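FORM 12-B: Structure-to-Sequence Request
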C-alpha cells in the first residue's frame, strides 16, 4: 500500500514510529512536570498506598518486557525508522500476545500516572498514548500483512492483539531459556528511565508533604542516585561488549 493510499491511522502510525522517542518523551515530560502530583483524598498516608500500587503496575509492565526480550526478542526499531521484519516472529511471548512490548509500555505508563494521580494526566496521557500505540500497531500490521500475507493473517486469528492468551503460557516459559544478558542489554534504559521518573515524582511528593510528620526526601534522592550509578555501570559494560551473546 502506498503512503498516500494508506488509512489515516497507518500514516499517523508511520510518522510516530519514526519520531516516537522524541514525541513520547516530550509529551511525558510536559505532562508529569507541567502538572503537580495530586494527593489522594488529601491524605498523604493514603497517597503512599497509591504510590505503591502505581509502582507495582509499572513493575508488572517491566516484567512483561523482560520476559519478551529475554525469551525471543523482536527488533522494534525497524529499518530507516520504518516498520521492518526479516521474519514473522511468533515464538516466546509473541505466541500469547501480538504486541507484548507495547502492552508492557502501557502498563509502565499507567503505573507512573497512578503515582502522579492528576486527573488531567489520566485523561490526556491515556488518550494520547492509547491512540499513539493503536496507530503504530496499525502501521506495523499494514507492513506485516503485505509482507507475510496468509501467515500473518493466520497468526492474527490465533493470537490476540492486546490481551494475553494464558493457555499454554506456562509451557512456553518452561520450554525456553531466559537470555539474561540480552534482557539487560536491550532494556536497561527503559527500566532506568521509568524508575528514575518514579523517584522524581516521589521526591516532588515528599517535598510537597514535608510539613507532614517531619518527612524528609532522603529515600527518593538515594534511590535516584543508586539508579543512576547502576545505569552508568551497565552502560559501560555494554560499550565493553560484556553483554554480547551468540543469539542477540
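FORM 12-B RESPONSE
SEQUENCE OUT:
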Amino acid at each position: 500500500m502506498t503512503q498516500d493510499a494508506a488509512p489515516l491511522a497507518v500514516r499517523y502510525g508511520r510518522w510516530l514510529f519514526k519520531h516516537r522517542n522524541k514525541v513520547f518523551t516530550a509529551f511525558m515530560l510536559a505532562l508529569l512536570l507541567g502538572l503537580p502530583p495530586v494527593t489522594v483524598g488529601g491524605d498523604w498516608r493514603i497517597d503512599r498506598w497509591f504510590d505503591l500500587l502505581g509502582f507495582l503496575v509499572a513493575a508488572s509492565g517491566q516484567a512483561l518486557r523482560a520476559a519478551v526480550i529475554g525469551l525471543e526478542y523482536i527488533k522494534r526499531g525497524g529499518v530507516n525508522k520504518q516498520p521492518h521484519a526479516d521474519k514473522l516472529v511468533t515464538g516466546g511471548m509473541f505466541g500469547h500476545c501480538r504486541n507484548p512490548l507495547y502492552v508492557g509500555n502501557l502498563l509502565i505508563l499507567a503505573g507512573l500516572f497512578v503515582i502522579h494521580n492528576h486527573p488531567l494526566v489520566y485523561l490526556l496521557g491515556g488518550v494520547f498514548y492509547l491512540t499513539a500505540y493503536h496507530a503504530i500497531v496499525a502501521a506495523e500490521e499494514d507492513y506485516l500483512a503485505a509482507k507475510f500475507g496468509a501467515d500473518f493473517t493466520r497468526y492474527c486469528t490465533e493470537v490476540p492483539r492486546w490481551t494475553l492468551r494464558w493457555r499454554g503460557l506456562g509451557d512456553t516459559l518452561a520450554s525456553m531459556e531466559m537470555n539474561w544478558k540480552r534482557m539487560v542489554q536491550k532494556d536497561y534504559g527503559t527500566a532506568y528511565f521509568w524508575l528514575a521518573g518514579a523517584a522524581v515524582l516521589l521526591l516532588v511528593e515528599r517535598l510537597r508533604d514535608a510539613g507532614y510528620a517531619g518527612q524528609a526526601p532522603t529515600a527518593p534522592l538515594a534511590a535516584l542516585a543508586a539508579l543512576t550509578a547502576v545505569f552508568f555501570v551497565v552502560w559501560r559494560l555494554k560499550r565493553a561488549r560484556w553483554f554480547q551473546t551468540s543469539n542477540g
